[in-house]
User: Fold Copper chaperone CopZ from Peribacillus loiseleuriae.
Amino acid sequence: MGNITLNVSGMSCGHCVNAVEGNIGKLAGVYEVKVHLETGKVDVAFDSEKVTLEKIKNTIDDQGYDVE
Assistant:
């Protein structure tokens, strides 16, 4: 299992939190997602054999947010 903290810009409200947590949480292999709105960080706990970091980043990007 892997844990990563991503820097995500463009998140500013509760809808942003729900969009990111909801869509990342739906990915097979993701165990936990926590958005820290005030710092622009997203913590993700995932199984790297089931989902790639690239897939997680692309899913955030698809929601309209920039992943650094």
